[in-house]
Each structure stands twice: as C-alpha cells, then as structure tokens.
Design goal:
The structure is a homodimer. Chain A is mostly helical. Helix content of chain A is 61%, strand content 3%. Chain A is built from 20 helices and three strands.
Chain lengths: 503, 503
Amino acid sequence: MTPYDTFKKKMQRIADLNNTASVLSWDQETYMPELGAEHRSQQQATLAGISHTMSTEKELGELLKKLSGDKTLTAAQQKNVALTLKDYEKRKKYTTEFVEKISQTVSQCFVAWQKAKHENNFSLYAPHLEKLVELKREESEFLGYEKHPYDAQLDMYEPEATTAQLEKLFGGVREKLVAFVNIIRSQPQNGDDFMHKHFPKDKQWDYGIMLLKQMGYDFKAGRQDISSHPFSTSFSPLDVRVTTRMNENDLAEMIWSSIHEGGHALYEQGMPVEEYGLPGAEAISLSIHESQSRLWENNVGRSLNFWKYNFKSLQSTFTDQFKNVTAEDFYKAMNIVKPSLIRTSADELTYHFHVMIRFEIEKALFEKSVNVKELPEMWNTKYKEYLGVDVPSDAQGVLQDIHWSHGSFGYFPTYSLGSFYAAQFYAQAKKEIPGLENEISNGNMKPLLSWLREKVHKHGRHFTSEELCIAITGEKLNFDHFMNYANEKYSHLYKLKPVAAAM
Amino acid sequence: MTPYDTFKKKMQRIADLNNTASVLSWDQETYMPELGAEHRSQQQATLAGISHTMSTEKELGELLKKLSGDKTLTAAQQKNVALTLKDYEKRKKYTTEFVEKISQTVSQCFVAWQKAKHENNFSLYAPHLEKLVELKREESEFLGYEKHPYDAQLDMYEPEATTAQLEKLFGGVREKLVAFVNIIRSQPQNGDDFMHKHFPKDKQWDYGIMLLKQMGYDFKAGRQDISSHPFSTSFSPLDVRVTTRMNENDLAEMIWSSIHEGGHALYEQGMPVEEYGLPGAEAISLSIHESQSRLWENNVGRSLNFWKYNFKSLQSTFTDQFKNVTAEDFYKAMNIVKPSLIRTSADELTYHFHVMIRFEIEKALFEKSVNVKELPEMWNTKYKEYLGVDVPSDAQGVLQDIHWSHGSFGYFPTYSLGSFYAAQFYAQAKKEIPGLENEISNGNMKPLLSWLREKVHKHGRHFTSEELCIAITGEKLNFDHFMNYANEKYSHLYKLKPVAAAM
C-alpha cells in the first residue's frame, strides 16, 4: 500500500463509523421504539468517542504531514490531503474532556428544550441553554477566530463565512426584501382553501414517491420513510435516504418536504463513490447543500412550469379536492406571501426574516450583548419589527427550533445562503441549458440534474462555497439574483408593475 | 470509579459497538436499499475490527486478572468477571490476520452460496466452502479441544457441549423418534386445505401483532418488521426487535414465525437492563435461546389450549377461510407429521432428522472423513435414509441453508437441543404453575411469562445450559421429556394407542 492508500483506508474506516452513527440516527427518527432511546444515546456517544480518537490519532497526523509535501499525488489527491489535514488540526483542538462535557450538556439541554416547549415554559430551558452557550463560547476561543467569536461557530457549517460578511449581506437583503414584501402585501391576496381539504395518506405517499422518481432520485440507492421532522441522510453515495411527513389536512407539507429532501439526497447520490471517506465525496458546506434542496423545492417545485406538467396527475390523484382548480390557481396557492410566526412554514420571501432574527440573536449571544434569560423578549421584539407579528407564546416563539438545544449556533444563516445560491445557480442553468424551462414543463428533469451533477455534485468539497459559485456563475454570491427571481415570479403572481431588473 | 466500574464501563462500550453492528444487520435485512450492500459490509467489518481490538486490549486483560482475585465483589460480580475473562482468553487466540481473512472468505462464500442456490449449481459454491472449512479447521486447532475438532466449533454456540455427548443424545433420539414417526405415518392423515386459502397480508399483520401482545412482548421496547427470513435481534433489553414474513397462501408461515421470534424476544426483553454489556445480560447459549422460542412456538403455540382461546378471533378475522372449521381441525392441521425436504418447514418431530443429518455431515467434515465435493451425495443419501425422500435438486438439498456460507458449523444441533430443553422446562412449568393450561386456554400468558422470567431470563448467562436445566428441573437434559410430550400430543392427534410414558 502506498502512503496515500493507507491514508484513504484510515479515512474510510472513520467514515464507516460516522456513517454507522448516521444509521443509528436514522433509525432513531423513523423506527426506534420508545424505550430504545436510553441506550441509543450511549451507543451514539461511544461511536462519537471512537471516531474522535481515530480522527485525531498521531499516526494520521504524521501521515498527513508527510503526504502534504508529496508532489507525485494528483491535484485531487493533494486536495484531499490538504482538506483532511485542516480538519485534523481543527479536531486536535478538542480535548476528550470537552467532547464528553458538551455531549452530556447537549443531551440534557435537548430534553429540557422538549419539556419547555411542551409546557410553554422557557425557564425550564434557560439554565441548560446558558451552560451550553458558555461551552460554545469556550469552543470559539480554543478554535480561534479573527474578528468575532461567532465566526468560529459559522465556520463549522459554512467554512470561511464571517459575521461581517453576513451582516453586509443581510443588510442588503433587509433593505430590498422589506420593501418588496410590503408591496406584495398591499395587493389583493390569493386563496388556498383547496390545499386544506382531506388528502388520504396512502395517495399522498404514492404521489411523493412519483415526484422523487421524476427528479431522478435513485430508489436502488435510497428509500423514503416517515418521520416527524423530514430529513435526508447518507451512509454512502449508494445509500442516501429521505423522510417526509404527511398531514391529511395540508397537502403542502408532504409535497415540498419530499422535494426539498429529494434535492439534498440528489446531491449525496451524485458524489463520486470511489472517493468514499474523503473530502472528494463530502458536501462543501450547509449552504451549498441547502442550495440543492431549495433549488428543487422553490425554483423548480414552486414554479408554474413544473406544475404545468404535474398538475394533471395531481388532479387525477385527488379528483374531488381539485375539482374546478387550475394549475395556475394551484401555483398561486403554493406561493402565498404572508408574514407568520413559524420559520418552517414560512413562504420563500418572509423566510429570510426568520433567519435574520436568529442571526442577530446568535451574534449578540456570542458578543455577550444579550444573555439567555433575555432571549424571549429579544425574540418577540424582533418578530414584531421584522414580521409585524405578535408572538403569543414562547412555544411558538423562541422555543420553536431544535437547533440551539443541539448546540448548533451559526446554522440558520446557511438556510438563507442556500436560497440565494440556488437562485444564482438556477439563473445560470437557464442560460446554459437550452430550453430548460420547456423541458421541465414536459416533465423532463434530466438536463437539470445532469447539469447539477456536473457543476456541483461531482466535486465533493474540492471547492469552497465561494470558489464553486465563481466557477459556476463567474461571480461571488450576489443577492440580486434572488431579487430578480423574486421580482419576476411575484410580479406575475401578484400582478405588480414590473420592477426594473437589478442587474 | 472502582476497578469493577471501570470494567463495566469498558464492557458497555464494547456492547455499544456490537449492538450498533446489530442495528446495521437489522437494517440490512429489513429496509436497506439494494445498492447499500457494498459499503454496509465494509462498515460491518470496521465495527467488528474495532470491537475485536477493544475486547482483546491489554488493559482489559490486566483489569480482569486483578478483579478475578477480588473477594469483596458480590457473587454476581465475580461471575461476570470470570466469564468475561474466559471470553477474553478465547478471543486473544484470534490474530487480527485470521479475523480479517475469515471475514473476507465468509463474504465471498455467502455471495457464492446465493448464486449457487439460485442457479442450482453446487460447484459454484464448493471451492469457496472448501476454503472456509479449511479456515474453520484451523480455528478449531488454535482454539483447542479435548477430543474432537468439531467440539471447538460446538463450543461457540453451545458452551461445554461435545461431539461425544451429542452423538449419544442423537443416538437415543434416532431410536425413539424413527419408530414413533413410523407409527404416526401408518395412521390416516389429517388435512390442512383451509390453511392454504387466501389470507390478505394486512389482516395477517394485525393478527400477528395481537398474538405478540398476548404473549407479553413489549412494543414500547420493540417492534415487528418484515424480512425474507424471520429473525429477532436485541440492541439492549429495551430495544428488542422481531421480524416475520407473510405468505398470502399459507397462514402458518406468519403465525408460527411470529410466535417463535416473539419467544426469542421475550428472553432478551427479560434480561436485567442494569447488567447491559455484561454476561449478566447475555443469553446462556443458542440452545437455551431456542428453548424459549420453541416453547412458545410448539408447546404453547401449537397446543389445543392456546387455540381454544384464540381460534375464535382467528375465525372472526378470516371468516370465509375458516367457515366450517373447528379449533380441533385447526389444531390437527398445524400438527401434521410429514417427512419433507426443507428443514425450516418441517413438523416438530421430523425436524430433528434434518438436524441430525447436518450434525453428522459437520462432524465428518471436521474429522476429514468427507470433503466438500462429496457433500451433495452424502446429503442425498442421508435424506433418503432418515426421511425417505428423494432430493430433486441441490437447491432444495445441500444448498438450502445459509449457515455454512456464514462459517457457522455446530449451530444446527442447538435447534434440537432447544426443543428438548423446551419440553423439559414446560413439563416443569406445568408442575409448578397452578392451572397453567387452564390459564392459557383463557388467554392468560402472564403466569408462564413470569415463571420464565424468574427461572430463565433474569439470570443472563450466570448458569451454563446444564446448570440452568438442573436448577429448574432437578436433572440434566433428558430427551424422555420430549418423547412424553410427543406421545401425549400425537397419540391424541393421530388416535394412537397410548404409549407407556418413558418416565
């Protein structure tokens, strides 16, 4: 075995463990019986501990340093080595003590969050969250950052993103989006009553499977199951699973969560399997992952072209529910813009206000300008300011998301970045793929999927988010693409006067 | 932490890994998509390698030796230490090289077996099986044995069992059972046409769930799924799963495989959860495990009393199928004795001939009096001799079982031992539990389950099979109990003259 092969073998073993941990999580969310939880968290902790030991072992570090100077390696191999060395050095900053402490704190915090949300009592959660925030601040210190302690948190989900960059980006978003949403909200609103009729689960299920197949999701290398919070997960590019949920009184939940998770899964299925265990078969960042799910969910799945093709089959599946409804009515219903309380059910425009609120709160937490006890007040004030809504309870307010209880700070911004990248990539796809929209309106998703495979999926994380964006579109992330998309779409939907394109 | 706590913690971590491997296997048999297989076997191999390293590490050995002399430990703690030390010493005999070699060989052998069975071509399998048998013979040598190399194989599944003991036991079985089956076969035969009507899967499923609940299987600590070969598996006493299969043209498959696997699962659910990772929460042997499944499947599940209670609900579930059928007809149909080709569908009497044939072949393989190429001929000759059937193809003959392709030699005898232990335990239960049969005929399984919990489940493997048998029944395994059970049951079913009880 060459040193590179030894390195690859070591990384594959670590991936085997991490992917096994993902199987445990998948099982936990889908099939695990109630009482299985106790030992499951212990089993997860054991795997995490072993994985941490293996990925910080001295021999691996030495091998990586040796390989770093090896000019006989191909460019791709050198990239794998360089990225792994960077990961290695980052992981070495964690002591086993810290890893164990944070794992325990997260377990307790998560349980407290569940209870607090259930009982609408933030004070049950606050002391645990406080401890966790303290540990995460400590983590920022030992990981290191240039300007803002929150940068170290962002870097975990979005390598190279900084607080300053995001402030600038969100500043522009706020300015443009607030005005635009106000115009929309002043127009007569569309209706969606027919989305809330009764939709039997078995028919919803079959319809969702059909949509996934149409997108190109490979059921030989994946499957769909049910979970209370839809997610996608990968155990290798040949076993990438999705989940969905079905609400018999709201068809939208299943349709767009299936498409969304399908988009994530197509990214994972498109990774080069021969790079298993290496950066060459890993996602670039959460924002690029999210760009894939949002592109399918919104740019494709909430477009008129997509439903020009699919509405016929939807109507024949749910004949009574869609009697006297047209594809255009359906298109309007799925794109109603309406400020609301809950992030996960927000429309694709006001969604970003939910993210900005969380970004501002997280930033404040890490610069210690707010403490945990003050979060409900800060939350409610910002919801009034950005969305004009009164938060009736903490359960529907500051307690709505799971993320903080997991210690995930810096995660939310990637949702917005993902939407913006999606708009920019999709605008480029329209330029490069002849008759793309026409293909979609004929039910042919292959040209789009092939383009994404070639432009995004096959590279693993050999690009950064920004490098990828430049490679594909010739420029850095530019919010104007999202605004152009929004302008074009919503001017039609809400009969607005066409706005001058931003670029 | 005391040294005992350190030991316990180490064992729990190893159990976490092994139970995780069981989750992977469960997923593989139930939900894994087709293409997931490739990385799954690699993930399994990685877990097995890490588990082997952890359970043979020097520190564990030193700790165990230190604890072995510690008289301040409770008797149960001393037992845990002693048994773990024995396991440790056995595991230390395996080199990593051997572990990896056998794991590869098994993978190849299994694939070859599948293909050979599918194409009815033994020669595709033979060279792989030959290699595997060679490795297993080598294993017997380094593990060591007193008299027969096959003893070392038996010991893996049935600690302390020997070839000589089994030869003696099976000698008696053969003598008594051949004669008894001949008498039965000379009588007019009962019919079972109604078992082969059409039974819709969804109704079968619900009925099977009801039976499991009735037995006392806890669905909060388990679940049932579908797999092509039913099995049960445990990830902790609080997460013990079963699978079943359903044939719409044969109700028997679901009913008795669900009850059988339920019996295995009740054993695992009955283990003391605080002993997780230690011998105190492990099964004694495969034969004792099988005694639990067979007791529920045969002594209970194929008894008239059980169906006196349940036939009414069965009939109301499958009204048309059981029109004009009585509980007694149903009881007769589920107990037809008929020599056949396939072990897994054999009746509870001729079943043991299938086992004896395999025992004799395995013994011959390990004493090198037969080679792999000659197996089909040996198989077919013995089937003619013991069961009077002509084997029409190797697929229905020597290729029918998966076991050898997995390298499992010495496994089959535990099936028969399990049945014999079940008969002996059940005879004792009838003596000790007031009105046991009456309770069962009223659908009350609690007294039996409580008795099994107390007598078998709660002890983990702090007894050997033989010690447990003596503790419960006052004597070693005695085949006469099985013959008494068979005599009583089949004399009634086949209207034989009552045979004098053997004891």
